[in-house]
Amino acid sequence: MLMKRVVSSFIPSLGFSSLSPSIVKSGDVLKQVRIFSSSDVLEYSKLSHDLNPLHFDIESARNAGFEDRLVHGMLVASLFPRIIASHFPGAVYVSQSLQFRSPVYIGEEVIGEVQATNIREIKNKYIAKFKTKCFKHGDHLVVEGEATAILPTLAMEQGQSTG
Predict the structure, then answer these.
(1) Could you tell me the superkingdom of the organism this chain comes from (predicted)?
(2) How far is CA 152 from CA 84, 105, 116, 157, 162, in A?
C-alpha cells in the first residue's frame, strides 16, 4: 500500500530573510506535495457522488485511452484551498478557475502550487489573487487556474502537514 505524503513549503521572493516575519508578497509561491491513494478516490466519490468508472475500473480507463484509473480532477484541485488555508487560517476562498491539462493516476506524486499575483487591502482584510498549478513528474502540468481568497492577515503560518 502506498503511503500518502503531504509536505508544505514556502519558497520566498527575493530579499526574504529568515529573521524577518513571513509576510506574503506578490510573486511568493506556496507548495504542497500529495500522493492520492485508492482510498482517497473512494472517499471523494462517496462525498461527491461521482461514480465514473474511470476512477474505479482499469478496463474502463484503458478503453477511454488512459493508462490507469484516474484521480478525480476536482480532488487534485482541492490542493489549492488546502495550501491557502494551511498558511492563512480563517482565509475565505472566493473563486477558482480550473483547466485540466493531463490525467493524474492513483499513486502518482502531485505538487500543488499557488503563487500570489496581486494583493490589496480592503477594510483590514486582504484580497489575494493566486496563479494555481499542479504538476506531476516534476514539471508536467496537470491542472492550472486562478484563485481569489480573502486573507485575514498577510503573515503566514507554517503550513499544516496532514495526511
Answers:
(1) Eukaryota
(2) 12, 35, 15, 12, 22
pLDDT at 18 (0 to 100): 44
Owning domain of residue 111: 7-151
Mean pLDDT of 125-147: 97
Q: Is residue 160 included in any domain, yes or no?
A: no
Predicted pLDDT of residue 9: 40
- Supply the CATH number for residue 105's domain: 3.10.129.10
Domain assignment of residue 80, yes or no: yes
CA distance 156 to 144: 23
By the 8 A CB rule, do 97 and 153 touch? no
What backbone torsions phi and psi does residue 97 show, to the nearest 5 degrees? -105, 150
At 111, which amino acid appears?
Answer: I
Residue pLDDT, tens place only, 3-20: 333 333 433 333 333 444
pTM: 0.84
Residue 68 is classified by DSSP as: S
Q: What is the mean pLDDT of residues 145-156?
A: 96
Residue linked to cell 457522488:
49
Query: Residues of 53-69 as b/e, b for ≥16 C-beta within 10 angstroms?
Result: ebbbeeeebeeeeeeeb
Average pLDDT, the chain: 87
How many domains would you assign to the chain?
1
